[in-house]
Specification:
This protein is an alpha/beta fold. The chain is built from 13 helices and 14 strands. Bound molecules: phosphoenolpyruvate and cobalt (II) ion.
Length: 464
């Protein structure tokens, strides 16, 4: 395998790059704001507001992702398809955190690896859409593109892109972040108290017994360590938690692209780990141009139409110096296509010796519509894509270093199947998503258990 020269940190700011150089490139999926002055005023206001994260946190996540690339950690990235302003509630935030903490406990226990926890929240307010407009009867209006851009109601007023929504999105993100940080710093994530993460409806869950067995075994291990060392294991009291969102709305992202004292280059300080969506990952497009210049770790969604040479060129642009922890590739092929589409990409990246973190999004290639008009996903297909991903990486000599999931801590019925075998009819009971269907708490936990079982079934020499 040809080895390229590797430097531990990039030392060059990409030439010709500025926080606004994306403006000279074709920009897909951006709204057309009717009032340019109002847009400029909102951007100026955002530029003066404090950021949501710091460069230290961003660089610490980059280090953890570099370790995940080496097989020393596993990435769990999850949250809603889209947050909305109305759901900025303490229950929604803490329930989502509980599920992610429970899943990470299952993964730590089963994979015997530290987990990098990244939420799809505190900024996940912009959505790419397949059509620019929506028609009902004889009325055609702009599509709903997420609460940071316009409103979901089918009225001209709600659907007109409003730049003031960016100010509200920043405030809602800050509240979400603040509450999450306070919960974690206050001891909510303490491994000595996993009962803090129990959700009301868990008592009746078919998975409860297996989960409680894991918790008990982990508790024993913690007590054993403490008896042995004669002291409490303090670093189990809190965990690192990072945020991510699709950095789709470039005027918003640009306003948080800043330089900080004692660091070179530019950071996106609206989130730790932004990603480029599948529909905006064109090599010469505005989004790739924006992402190449920031120092955050970044991810790109890779769909079934991406060819191996196209992927290598994308890696050249986004990580020219082969920096560890810089680039994650989130493949989202769909259960029916992954076996055909993924191996040539794995082979090309491996052959060229590129350093990336491979992550499987088992949601977005598996969306379908039911006869009763719901957008759904089948649990079996989600699990099936994940299980195939582990096998395909093992066969290619690459490593699946993480998963990307859409989930909620609420008792919704949006995906079909799982331990309670939800059916199309159940979707009518508690379907709340305005965009993609999410795994509910139980289905999410079941996926974490399936990951552990799958990993354990792989030959060890390949799995690590
Ligand atoms: C998403 O993650 O919600 C999304 C739209 O994904 P993709 O870009 O992979 O379709
Ligand atoms: Co989605």
């Amino acid at each position: 395998m040809p080895q390229r020269e590797r430097s531990l940190t990039p030392v060059h700011l990409p030439p010709d790059w500025q926080p606004d150089s994306w403006r000279s490139r074709p920009a897909l999926q951006l709204p057309v704001y009717p009032d340019a002055e109002a847009l400029a005023a909102a951007q100026a206001e955002l530029q003066a507001l404090p950021p949501l994260v710091t460069s230290w946190e961003i660089l610490s996540l980059k280090q953890q992702l570099a370790e995940a690339q080496e097989g020393k950690r596993f990435l769990l990235q999850g949250g809603d398809c889209a947050e909305n302003f109305a759901d900025c509630h303490s229950d929604v935030i803490s329930n989502r955190l509980k599920v992610l903490l429970q899943m990470s406990l299952v993964l730590v226990h089963g994979l015997r690896l530290p987990v990098v926890r990244v939420g799809r929240f505190a900024g996940q307010y912009a959505k790419p859409r397949s059509a620019d407009t929506e028609t009902r009867g004889d009325v055609t209006l702009p599509s709903y593109r997420g609460d940071v851009i316009n409103g979901p109601e089918f009225t001209e007023h709600a659907r007109t892109p409003d730049p003031r929504r960016m100010i509200k999105a920043h405030a809602r993100s800050a509240m979400t972040m603040n509450f999450t940080r306070s919960l974690i710093d206050g001891g909510f994530a303490d491994l000595h108290h996993p009962e803090y993460w129990n959700l009301g409806w868990m008592g009746h869950s078919p998975l409860a017994e297996e989960y409680h067995r894991m918790v008990a075994s982990l508790g024993d291990a913690v007590r054993f360590m403490e008896t042995l060392s004669g002291a409490e294991v303090y670093n189990l009291n809190r965990v690192d938690f990072f945020t991510s969102h699709e950095a789709l709305l470039l005027p918003y992202e640009e306003a948080f692209t800043r330089q900080v004292p004692r660091q070179w280059g530019w950071f996106n300080l609206s989130t730790h780990f932004p990603w480029i969506g599948m529909r905006t990952a064109a090599l010469d497009g505005a989004h790739v141009e924006y992402f190449r210049g920031i120092r955050n770790p970044v991810a790109v969604k890779i769909g079934p139409s991406v060819a191996p040479d196209q992927l290598l060129r994308l890696i050249d642009v986004l990580n020219p110096e082969d920096e560890p922890g810089r680039l994650a590739l989130i493949h989202r092929m769909g259960e029916a296509q992954i076996a055909e589409k993924l191996p040539p990409l794995l082979e090309a990246v491996r052959r060229d010796g590129r350093r990336v973190l491979w992550v499987c999004d088992a949601m977005h290639g598996n969306t379908e519509s039911t006869r009763n008009g719901y957008k759904t996903r089948r649990f079996d297909r989600i699990r099936g894509e994940l299980e195939q991903a582990f096998d395909l990486h093992a066969a290619a000599g690459t490593r699946l270093g993480g998963v990307h999931l859409e989930l909620t801590g609420e008792d919704v019925t949006e995906c079909i199947g799982g331990a309670r075998d939800l059916t199309e009819v159940d979707l009518e009971r508690a379907y709340r998503s305005t965009v993609d269907p999410r795994l509910n708490y139980e289905q999410a936990l079941e996926i974490a258990m399936a990951i552990v079982r799958k990993q354990a079934s792989l030959p060890r020499s390949i799995a690590r």
